[in-house]
Amino acid sequence: MVTRKNPLFDTATTLGKILGFLGVSAICGVLVAGLLVPAAAVSGSAASGSIQFFDTLPAELQVDPPSQNTTILAKDGSPIASIYAENRTRVPLDQMSPFIKDAVIAIEDSRFYEHGGIDTTGIMRALVSTARGNKQGASTITQQYVNNVINESLVAADREEDVKLNGGGKGVGDKLREMKLAIALEKKFSKEQILEGYLNIVFFNRDAYGIEAASKFFFSTTAKDLTLPQAALLAGLVNSPSAFDPIANPDSSKVRRDLVLASMVNQGKITQAQYDEAVATPVTTQVTPARQGCAYATMAPYFCDYVLHLLFNDPAYGDTTEERIKRVQRGGLTIQTTLDPTAQNVAQQQVDATAGANPDKWGASIVSVQPGTGQIVSMAQNTVWLPQEGKFDQTQNFNVDVLDKNGNDLNGIGGFQPGSTMKPFTFAQWLNEGKSMETNVNAAVRKYPQNFPWRNTCPTPTDGFYDGNVQGSFDLQNAEPQYYRNMTVLWGLKNSINTATFASAAQVDLCGIQGIVDATGIHGGLPARDDTGKITDPNPQVQMTRLSNLIGATQTAPLTMAASFATFAADGKYCEPIAITSVKDQSGASLPAQSSSCKDAVKPEVARGVAYAMGKVLDEGSGSLIRPALNSKNFPVAAKTGTNDSNGSTWVVGYTSGLATASWFGDPLGDQLRPGRNLTVNGKFYPAIDGYMIAGPQFTNYMLAVAPAYGTNPFQAPPSNLTGAPTPQRNNTPSNTTPSTAPKPPATGNGNSGNGNNGNKD
């Protein structure tokens, strides 16, 4: 059975409309009375009850700054990337075009400067219009601001489901609360402050919150430079960002814009001539797409990502990772970093020139730090963050560890086998024990059996042996057979002779080598795990009592190597790498950042001796093929080449007095077991790659362009007792000049085989 309407109350009839109007008017009267006069001045139980309800509503609104963009800056203040949950850049009212202020008032709240938070005339008009069947809003700009502030706080608290938009989902209680808060807000803030807050918080587009972001997104301009037609369009957009979107719905957008312009001319905010010219202007946009995150960084996306992970891992920014991410994405932070854009540009050009587009996905990277401060100057690799045709896409950072020292993610690949770039640490211990680098050692020795009398004062036992007479092992190997002979320790280092390094190590305390490696920040880039896969150490010690590590068997990150070598450039002072020099919130207050953390790690005379010897590496030894280019600038450079067993990881790590750099080329994929042999890079075929071949020119070209800006002073000379005349060989190593017939093993990383850099001279 159909329920029949009571004709007396049917709003379709004239009488129904009259009664509906009277009823709405009565309700309106109660609301207005409750808002404008004290309860004692109103009689009647219904009115008193409404006023009592109104009086219980909160009158305080916490106006927190809305979500704003966080900006990551390079050292010179140039932008690297913008990070946000809502694309918003707050600007003061005096940095907004007068047209946008007049336009939004004209269309949204023409009596803005007359009312005290609510517009009773507007309420009456809206109620009458609604009673007649034409729904109409009556929210003032202040009320809309209140609604936006409430919703913004709900979103920030992860309560998006509680957000209530104007025009939907609100009950009478919600509107009353909004009205009371608007009245209270008008007592606390000036009209200009409210208008500024409103224009900075209001939603224009999913990629544009606030007038500055909207100006840039739709017109590639600023809020200050908006023209009259542009301002009128954006003011009209507030009412319905989807319906009046000038990109998707240009015709509807023009109708709405022209309505705004008509309101402006009717209210005397513009002249008739201005109106005529503006309405004749076609709706056009010049979109600047919002680019959020390090994937869209203007430079150094992997450095940008590293910076973000440092903040996400810092308890100063929140108790949980989620809180820290929210703080960064919504906090409007300004993050000043150490990155030098000029150096970064050169680094990126070099790695791209090395192997920017290679279908076999060989990797190249450069990272440099400043000795004495630890500041990261550049960080580049030959990949792109977002997939691009013909490019090697990768989101992991080639230059950093997998985890930080607290076990937090750094999104790093964990490094690569450093090969012979580990040899200077044995050399440093040789000098540390007061021995001359001109002392002869027997580099003909190839067997270091299980019972070899290593000197090791560390509690960690010596691990590994080289003995071709034992099944599964092999004799220590050099790349070329003519170097199994007596030579000075210096000659052995500069020519990267494996047997010379072992002959040196046999005459020093392995625990001393360990101490230098630890003091200069060397650690494994991959976390250590137990048999169940649980992480036991995020940055494990590189055990120098494991013999294979004397020639570089444990994966180590390029940033770690650069910072360690910077110790020798800084006269023995090690500084932890840092990327962030300051962080400020949107009020300008300083937040925790990084500062240089340095310590004396190596005796100055030892550091000077290492610099002297690694200068010889370039002048006369394994790096001599990359020195001629450096000679064109004629500044002192110290460096060491490195290649692992499989030729799949090749390096040059070196420094001037003002800049330390790690240059790497090799296999960054999976277990990194691809041999670097029989490959073609940039049209050139390589039977086998070594450090000087690809990583070397990359290092040289970078240092030629960048190092002079950071200082290229001569290195201080080491004391004469470390560079003195040859001394007799200490005969505590067995002589064995018989070549082994044992085959060269694969790079398995088996500590028992002493695997690390056997068979490669670089």
UniProtKB/TrEMBL annotation:
Keyword field: Carboxypeptidase, Cell shape, Cell wall biogenesis/degradation, Glycosyltransferase, Hydrolase, Membrane, Multifunctional enzyme, Peptidoglycan synthesis, Protease, Transferase, Transmembrane, Transmembrane helix
Biased composition (Gly residues): 751-762
Transmembrane segment boundaries: 21-42
A Pfam match: Transpeptidase
Protein's UniProt keywords contain Nucleus: no
Chain residue ranges for the region called Disordered: 717-762
Compositionally biased residues, Low complexity: 726-741
A Gene Ontology cellular-component term: outer membrane-bounded periplasmic space
Any one Gene Ontology molecular-function term assigned to this protein's record: serine-type D-Ala-D-Ala carboxypeptidase activity
Reactions catalysed, as given in the entry: Preferential cleavage: (Ac)2-L-Lys-D-Ala-|-D-Ala. Also transpeptidation of peptidyl-alanyl moieties that are N-acyl substituents of D-alanine; [GlcNAc-(1->4)-Mur2Ac(oyl-L-Ala-gamma-D-Glu-L-Lys-D-Ala-D-Ala)](n)-di-trans,octa-cis-undecaprenyl diphosphate + beta-D-GlcNAc-(1->4)-Mur2Ac(oyl-L-Ala-gamma-D-Glu-L-Lys-D-Ala-D-Ala)-di-trans,octa-cis-undecaprenyl diphosphate = [GlcNAc-(1->4)-Mur2Ac(oyl-L-Ala-gamma-D-Glu-L-Lys-D-Ala-D-Ala)](n+1)-di-trans,octa-cis-undecaprenyl diphosphate + di-trans,octa-cis-undecaprenyl diphosphate + H(+)
Record protein name field: Penicillin-binding protein
Organism: Paenarthrobacter aurescens (strain TC1)
